Predict the structure.
Amino acid sequence: CRSEMRTLVLLPLAAALLLSILPAEAIDNGLALTPAMGYNTWNDFRCAGISAENVRKVADAMVDGGFLAAGYRYLNIDDCWSTSRDAQGNLVPDPTAFPDGMRAVSDYVHSKGLLIGIYTDRGNLTCQQRPGSLGYELQDAKTFASWGIDYLKEDSCYATDEHTEAFKEYSTMMSSLNATGRPIYFSLCGWNAWYAPVGKSLGNSWRIAGDCNAWPTVYNAIRVNENLSHYAGPGGWNDPDMLVGSTKSAASYNQPWQARTQFSLWAVMAAPLLIGSSMLNMSDYDKETYTNAEVISIDQDVLGRQGLPVFSNCPPHNQAEYERDIAAGNAIVPPCQQVWARPLSNGDVALAFVNYSPLKATVTCDAACMRAIGLPSATFRDVWAHTVVGKFSEYKVTLEGMGHSALYRLSPTSA
């Protein structure tokens, strides 16, 4: 998504009113019982590097590098794969980048044990001004199914800002995907929190904020998502955007500890884990981050409950204002801290501490905080160090600044 294309505002009671006009049909694919895991080409190749050859190389790297074994199943091709429509209105892949067509690419990805995703837009054009799907939803859905596509991301550039029409357009594609009879994961990319109340009626995940690139954009997605937990669950998830690694050959990257904090918080938020970094040149640090089985198990926990902040001294967050600051290049991450908690299916709790301040700070989950998560006393396991640190009725950790964090899995103990 290129969220700078649109700024949308949620109107009072809009979500409830829109639910009343949407069709009773919902996404019918049996997918996303846990958040999707995979990779997306955009932050890796942008437009210039998207090709069948590079997709095949990424597929090989996902298997050989252990990502498929870790749970990353989707290899998603983002914008710029298509150039036009033919005389019959069918989407035409870029003949230079995909000389053998998309079915050949799909077959190769499937041969590696992976699933393949593709990209479109609910408007007339995609964000990079390639053909969009408006008015071609059923035809495109049939085309994608014939290619063996398993995942569809539909963006919102060059599309109406009117909420009722936006929801109808997504509903049209959802119904078209259902009509193909092929289970295709449907990812809505509308960049706004107001999709959350209706998300499950339309797709398997829905973007709730602008694109994640530099650290302030990651902070924005976290703050927006903290109010949306009750909309997520098996079958449909709040999507705070792709994982921005620290590998410098990617188009977007952050500091290594910020990439790890993002991964930790995405797991606690039950978010899709879609790697938006270099798969072919990934640093050892990022590979260690994204293949941490203990963190992945938190994200993929079958209870499907999104976490919440149980402590925060951060100021109120206004998504529209902050994203305007991001676009202007003057967004500031405030000097504050949070503690997030997520209940897990076996009675454990995932507990994340994060320090957004530029200065070192001690972050505490005190006795009241522990009671709030339902564990007056617990055994703490550091899931990054892979060690048990002890039994506590309150806990404090000193963290360096600029987005350092700690993540623990808490198991109940007697007081």
